[in-house]
Design goal:
Strand content: 15-25%
Strand order of the largest sheet: 10-9-11-8-12
Radius of gyration: 20 Å
Number of domains: 2
Structural class: alpha/beta
CATH architecture of the largest domain: 3-Layer(aba) Sandwich
CATH topology of the largest domain: D-Maltodextrin-Binding Protein, domain 2
Shape: elongated
CATH class of the largest domain: Alpha Beta
Largest sheet: 5 strands, mixed
Order of helices and strands: HEEEEHEHEHEEEHEHEHEHEHH
Length: 268
């Protein structure tokens, strides 16, 4: 039973993604050429309420991973760049109203949004990961959780993942990821399983307590496809330029540099 379970979990942790640094582009994307249709500029829209992706610092300046990425994309394509922050509830409408050329703000890749927008390639996927106390990280084995308690957020897709793939593990449900992670810190649970990105923010403030254990699990149909840049439907020249720049930024190391700068506790 344990051997079969171990094999199942090994297959779930897709090797191409179980790296310390993100890479989500199709290898054939390296063959993409710059857009044949020139674009004079890219007007990026974003929000200012989602640190560390897009937010304002103490001086009111718009900063974050997405902000730096937008600037690097424009520099790679060699076009002028503007970045304007909108309230979250207005940002998508601003894009459809031609107030900008691209929206970099974590827009859900849903069927509904797919009618309105086209999306770039994924630049950051959102895996699920286990967190344990620091002393348990090195010897962590997901196939040995049968006698353990794993904390999860109640009703989450990560809870559903555990119920589907590790049905014999005892789950302890909490109303939020913070409560579930705190249960591990307080030894009320042996491990946590949930959204790795949000867990990385918590771990950044609890480095002496806990750490990621085991592999990252990528399940787009359960955890979401990840982060991409939205452009108005049919604006292929802008989308093509962004995709080309994302491949270039990965190949020249700039994307890794941004990831390490803004996510000191990496979630891959």
């Amino acid at each position: 039973m344990r051997l079969a379970l171990s094999l199942t979990l090994t297959l779930l942790a897709t090797p191409a993604f179980a790296q310390s640094l993100p890479y989500h582009a199709d290898p054939s994307a390296r063959e993409i050429l710059p857009s044949a249709t020139p674009i004079p500029a890219i007007r990026f829209l974003t929000t200012a309420d989602f640190p560390p992706f897009n937010f304002r610092d103490a001086g009111g300046e718009l900063i974050g991973f997405n902000i730096d990425l937008a600037k690097r994309i424009c520099a790679e394509v060699n076009v002028a760049c503007t970045i304007q922050a909108w309230p979250w509830e207005q940002a998508a409408n601003a894009l459809t109203d031609n107030q900008g050329d691209a929206l970099i703000a974590g827009v859900d890749l849903s069927e509904e949004n797919g009618v309105l927008f086209d999306f770039s390639s994924i630049y950051l996927a959102l895996p699920g990961r286990f967190v344990t106390r620091a002393g348990d990280v090195a010897g962590f084995d997901p196939a040995a959780l049968d006698s353990k308690t794993v904390a999860v957020r109640r009703g989450s897709t990560h809870e559903a993942f555990m119920q589907r793939y590790l049905p014999d593990v005892t789950l302890s449900e909490f109303d939020s990821e913070i409560e579930a992670l705190s249960a591990v810190e307080d030894s009320k649970a042996d491990a946590f399983f949930g959204d790795a990105m949000r867990a990385s923010f918590w771990l950044n403030e609890h480095l002496n307590c806990c750490g990621f254990a085991g592999d990252a699990y990528f399940r787009p149909n359960m955890f979401g496809e990840g982060l991409a840049i939205a452009v108005p439907a049919g604006h292929d020249a802008v989308r093509h330029a962004i995709d080309w720049a994302l491949v270039r930024l990965k190949d020249n190391g700039a994307l890794d540099e941004l990831y390490l700068r803004w996510f000191p506790v990496g979630f891959y």
